[in-house]
């Protein structure tokens, strides 16, 4: 089974690109959705995160805004949080890959925002980086509710730069050219991944 890592900086259109793979029937592991589940009521991360950062839970779930305020500009706090959350998301990803292999899937997509930052790229056969011009990125991000310049800049500071991501990618997809352009490129990548899998099996 071929593993395609999908990543991109905030506001680049990564989630929309992941949806194109899903719509085409490709299994997609969504790291953000996994974290949401872990932070939700009864989630495995709730108790250990509350123990490390008292007061960040509300009604049995992690209040993401409170947690963000505690770790946003505190590198040590961010490392403590990552030490709790990364092993849990890693286990969820392992279960996803195991289920896909069991189902005989030719390839899967791992949608991971911090693929390069966490070393996840090492477990992928190929990496697709989603990109867009800086002005398009900024416009998309600043239109989000509760987003501020300070938060945006802090997020960017924690991420590998778009230029570095593109330099290390096997595939690059710009989302600045519309839906049809993106879908055509995704379809071409799917066809190539299936062909690569057939070559490995032959």
From TrEMBL:
Reactions catalysed, as given in the entry: 3'-dephospho-CoA + ATP = ADP + CoA + H(+)
Record's GO cellular component terms: cytoplasm
Name the record gives this protein: Dephospho-CoA kinase
EC supergroup of this enzyme: transferase
List of residues binding ATP: 11-16
Family: Belongs to the CoaE family.
Organism of origin: Hyphomonas johnsonii MHS-2
Pathway: Cofactor biosynthesis; coenzyme A biosynthesis; CoA from (R)-pantothenate: step 5/5
CDD domains hit by this protein: DPCK
Gene name per UniProt: coaE
UniProt EC number: 2.7.1.24
Domain of life: Bacteria
Keyword Ribosomal protein: no
Subcellular localization(s) per the UniProt record: Cytoplasm
Keywords recorded for this protein, A-Z: ATP-binding, Coenzyme A biosynthesis, Cytoplasm, Kinase, Nucleotide-binding, Transferase
GO BP: coenzyme A biosynthetic process
Physiological role: Catalyzes the phosphorylation of the 3'-hydroxyl group of dephosphocoenzyme A to form coenzyme A.
SUPFAM superfamilies the UniProt entry points to: P-loop containing nucleoside triphosphate hydrolases
Molecular-function GO term, any one: ATP binding
